[in-house]
Design a protein that fits this description.
alpha/beta; 16% strand; globular
Length: 225
């Protein structure tokens, strides 16, 4: 028998676990209340200087070269095995696959849909992770926004960029919103990284950290803990 749908909570800017960086994010005129399902303590490490492992944001364009698809899957497995907290919209096909990989582990996951979560249907794996206190869904959008739009996705991505300590953009297609997001995060002084590949020149030319995965190991993961 599947677990019942978890209760919806509301997190206000005055609450202790509200992410400080979101209070000054340019994506919103004022800091929005967050609808939440799951373990709010997963945001605690983002409300004050973290004492535990840092949160890594994961982004990938909808269209992705084959070699980078495989590297991104290896990355997700490495993050899972290293117990690194991951935050993402998990919207593009590659991001959705990464969520499935991450849900098989025990590390914290923060899922940020670009829509309201008031009537969101959760998979059995998501319900199980919520029951284990390792999954949190958050959204700054009210029940009147039940569908994903480009505008909501842009706000959601800016929110993730504000909350995360490290941004990993596996691939950004030419002239894509993901590339524009990467450039804005770099300009804001965020720690942005990408994956090494001849198919990924646009991000590598930005002068950001370029990571390679060899033997299913990612050296920089150890620096996040």
């Amino acid at each position: 028998m599947s677990a019942p749908t978890p209760n919806l909570q509301t997190l206000f800017p005055k609450d202790a676990t509200y992410p400080i960086a979101l209070k000054t994010s340019a994506a919103f005129k004022t800091a929005p209340p967050l609808a939440a399902i799951g373990n709010l303590d997963l945001l605690a490490q983002n409300a004050t200087p973290p004492s535990c492992s840092k949160t890594l944001a994961l982004f990938c364009s909808k269209q992705c070269p084959g070699d980078l698809i495989l590297k991104t899957y290896d990355l997700a497995q490495a993050l899972r095995d290293a117990n690194i907290s991951v935050i993402s919209g998990f919207h593009t096909p590659i991001e959705q696959d990464c969520l499935k990989i991450l849900l098989r582990g025990i590390q914290p996951i923060i899922h940020c849909p670009a829509r309201s979560i008031h009537q969101m249907r959760l998979s059995p794996a998501q319900k199980q992770a919520i029951g284990a206190n390792r999954l949190l869904l958050i959204s700054p959008f009210s029940a009147s926004y039940p569908r994903i739009t480009a505008e909501l996705a842009a706000k959601r991505n800016a929110m993730i960029g504000a909350i995360a300590h490290i941004i990993l953009i596996a691939y950004a297609a030419p002239n894509s919103k993901t590339l524009a997001l990467a450039q804005s995060l770099i300009a804001a002084g965020k720690f942005v990284a990408t994956l090494a590949s001849p198919s990924n020149p646009l991000l590598q030319e930005q002068g950001i950290v370029v990571l390679d995965i060899n033997n299913e190991e990612l050296d920089f993961i150890t620096t996040l803990q």
